[in-house]
C-alpha cells in the first residue's frame, strides 16, 4: 500500500518535472544579476524551456503545462497579463506544426528550428502587445532580446538535457 | 468487436476535438486576460500582488547562491581597479572638502534669505530602504520586485537610488512591492530641464533611454542638459534628478537615467505625502478628507 503511494508520488513528480524545471529556470531568470551582456535585456527563458520540452518530451509537456508556464511568467512579469500565455500558445502551435522536421534531429537542427520558431513567436507577441498599448514598441529591443534568447539556447538546453537524462526515468 | 472498435474511434475523435477546443479556449483565455487587464486593473492588481507575495520568497532563495557567485566575479574584476580608484578618490575628497566649506556658508545664506522672503519649504519626506530581489528587463516591460517587509509601502511612492529617480511603486503586496521603472512603457513623469526650465513628459518605451515628449520644437534642449522632475500633477516633487539628455533629433529627445537601473541592489521608497496620486476609485491616495 505504502509502496503504491510512493510509486504514485514518484510517477507524478516525474510527469511534472519538465514543468517544475521550467519554473525553476524562469525564477532564475528574474534574479538581479549584473552579469556581462545580460544587464539590461534578459533572455526569454520560458520560450527556451517550452521549446525544449515540446521537442524532446511532448508526452510530459502538454498544452496545459504550456499554459501554466505562460501564466506563471505573466504573473511575475509586468508585461500585459495574457501576453506571455499568448506567446507560449503560439510557440506550441508552431512547434507542433514543425514537429516532423524536429523529431530526433541533431542539436544544430533543433537550434535552427528554435531560431525560426522563436522569431515568429516573439514578433507575434510584439504585435499583440503593440496593439494592447495602441503604439508600436521599439523593434530594436525585441530583436536584441531575440538574439540573446537564441544565444542562450544551447546553455539552457544543456541543463534541461541533464534533467531529461538523469532525473526523468521512463516507465517500462 | 466491431462495436468496440467504433466506440474506440468515437472516443479518439472526441479527444481530438477536445484538444482542438482546448487550444482555442486557451487563446481566448489569453485574450480575455488582456482585455480584463485593460479594463479592470483593480482585479488584476490585487491578484498579482497576492501571487507576487507567494513567488518572491522563491526568487529570494535562489538569489543567495547566485549573488554569491556574482559578487565573487565582481570582487576579482574590481581588484584591478583599486589602485586607480584610490588615487581618484583622494583627489575627489580634497575637492569635496573645499566644496563642503562653501556649502556651509551658502546654507546659512540661503536660510537667511528664505526667512526674509517667507518662503514655503517643500514637503518633508519619509522613506524606507528596500532590497531588490528580482528584476525584469525585456522588450515588453521593465520592472523590479523589492522586499519592503512590514514597512508601509504604498502605491505611487517614488523609488530612488543614490543618483536619482528610478521609478514608482506600482503594486504592493504584504511584504513585497513591484516597482515600475522609468524606462517601462507605462511610465510617464512630468519633468523639466534643470537650467532652462523647459517642461515635458518623460515617457518610457521599454528601451534603456526614455524619451522626452510634449516639449516645444524650439525649446533649445541640448545634449547634456540635466532632466529633473517638474512637480506638475503633484505626484513627484519638483527638482528630483532623473537623467541627462543624450540625443536630440527632429523626432525625439532621448534621456539617459543617472542611475544604472540594472545594477540596483537597494532602493529608497520615498513618501512625500503629495496628493496628486489617486486611488482607483478617484480618491486622493495621501491625505484629503475623503481618505480613509
Overview of the molecule:
The complex is a heterodimer of chains A (172) and B (292). Chain A starts with a helix and ends in a 5-residue tail after the last helix. In chain A, 43% of the residues are buried. Chain A has one domain (42-167). Chain A has 172 residues and is mainly α. Chain A has seven helices and no strands. Chain B is α+β, with helices and mostly antiparallel strands and 292 residues long. Chain B has a domain at 188-260: Rod shape-determining protein MreC, domain 2 (Thrombin, subunit H). Chain B is built from three helices and twelve strands, in the order αααββββββββββββ. Chains A and B meet through helix 3, helix 4, helix 6 and helix 7 of A and helix 1, helix 2, strand 1 and strand 2 of B.
- Tell me the CATH superfamily of the domain at 188-260 in chain B: Rod shape-determining protein MreC, domain 2
Radius of gyration of chain B: 26 Å
Counting DSSP H or I runs of 4 or more residues, the number of helices of chain A is 7
Distance between the termini of chain A: 21 Å
Main sheet properties of chain B: 6 strands, antiparallel, barrel
Number of helices of chain B: 3
CATH architectural category of the domain at 188-260 in chain B: Beta Barrel
Shape of chain B: globular
Number of strands of chain A: 0
Give a brief description.
The complex is a heterodimer of chains A (172) and B (292). Chain A is built from 7 helices and no strands. Chain A has 172 residues and is mainly alpha-helical.
Amino acid at each position: 500500500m505504502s509502496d503504491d503511494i510512493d510509486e504514485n508520488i514518484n510517477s507524478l513528480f516525474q510527469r511534472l518535472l519538465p514543468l517544475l524545471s521550467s519554473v525553476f529556470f524562469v525564477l532564475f531568470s528574474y534574479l538581479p544579476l549584473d552579469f556581462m551582456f545580460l544587464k539590461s535585456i534578459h533572455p526569454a527563458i520560458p520560450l527556451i524551456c517550452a521549446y525544449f520540452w515540446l521537442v524532446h518530451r511532448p508526452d510530459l509537456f502538454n498544452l496545459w503545462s504550456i499554459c501554466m508556464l505562460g501564466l506563471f511568467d505573466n504573473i511575475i512579469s509586468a508585461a500585459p497579463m495574457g501576453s506571455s500565455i499568448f506567446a507560449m500558445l503560439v510557440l506550441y502551435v508552431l512547434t507542433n506544426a514543425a514537429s516532423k522536421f524536429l523529431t530526433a534531429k541533431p542539436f544544430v537542427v533543433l537550434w535552427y528550428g528554435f531560431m525560426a520558431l522563436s522569431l515568429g513567436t516573439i514578433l507575434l507577441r510584439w504585435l499583440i502587445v503593440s496593439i494592447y498599448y495602441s503604439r508600436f514598441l521599439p523593434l530594436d529591443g525585441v530583436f536584441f532580446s531575440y538574439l540573446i534568447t537564441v544565444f542562450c539556447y544551447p546553455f539552457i538546453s544543456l541543463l534541461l538535457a541533464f534533467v531529461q537524462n538523469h532525473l526523468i526515468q521512463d516507465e517500462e | 468487436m466491431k462495436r468496440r472498435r467504433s466506440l474506440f474511434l468515437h472516443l479518439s475523435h472526441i479527444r481530438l476535438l477536445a484538444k482542438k477546443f482546448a487550444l482555442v479556449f486557451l487563446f481566448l483565455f489569453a485574450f480575455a486576460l488582456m482585455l480584463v487587464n485593460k479594463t479592470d486593473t483593480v482585479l488584476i492588481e490585487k491578484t498579482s500582488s497576492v501571487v507576487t507575495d507567494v513567488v518572491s520568497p522563491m526568487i529570494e532563495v535562489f538569489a543567495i547562491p547566485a549573488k554569491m557567485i556574482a559578487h565573487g566575479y565582481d570582487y576579482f574584476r574590481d581588484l584591478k581597479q583599486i589602485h586607480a580608484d584610490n588615487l581618484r578618490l583622494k583627489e575627489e575628497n580634497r575637492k569635496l572638502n573645499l566644496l563642503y566649506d562653501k556649502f556651509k556658508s551658502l546654507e546659512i545664506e540661503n536660510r537667511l534669505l528664505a526667512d526674509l522672503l517667507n518662503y514655503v519649504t517643500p514637503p518633508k519626506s519619509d522613506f524606507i530602504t528596500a532590497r531588490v530581489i528580482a528584476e525584469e528587463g525585456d522588450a515588453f516591460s521593465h520592472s523590479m520586485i523589492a522586499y519592503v517587509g512590514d514597512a508601509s509601502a504604498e502605491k505611487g511612492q517614488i523609488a530612488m537610488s543614490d543618483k536619482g529617480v528610478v521609478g514608482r511603486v506600482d503594486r504592493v503586496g504584504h511584504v513585497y512591492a513591484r516597482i515600475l521603472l522609468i524606462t517601462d512603457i507605462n511610465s510617464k513623469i512630468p519633468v523639466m530641464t534643470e537650467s532652462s526650465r523647459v517642461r515635458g513628459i518623460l515617457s518610457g518605451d521599454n528601451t534603456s533611454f526614455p524619451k522626452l515628449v510634449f516639449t516645444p520644437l524650439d525649446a533649445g534642449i541640448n545634449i547634456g542638459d540635466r532632466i529633473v522632475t517638474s512637480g506638475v500633477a503633484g505626484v513627484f516633487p519638483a527638482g528630483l534628478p532623473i537623467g541627462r539628455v543624450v540625443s536630440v533629433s527632429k523626432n525625439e529627445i532621448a534621456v539617459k537615467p543617472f542611475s544604472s537601473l540594472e545594477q540596483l541592489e537597494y532602493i529608497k521608497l520615498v513618501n512625500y505625502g503629495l496628493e496628486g496620486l489617486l486611488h482607483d476609485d478617484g480618491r486622493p491616495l495621501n491625505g484629503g478628507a475623503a481618505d480613509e
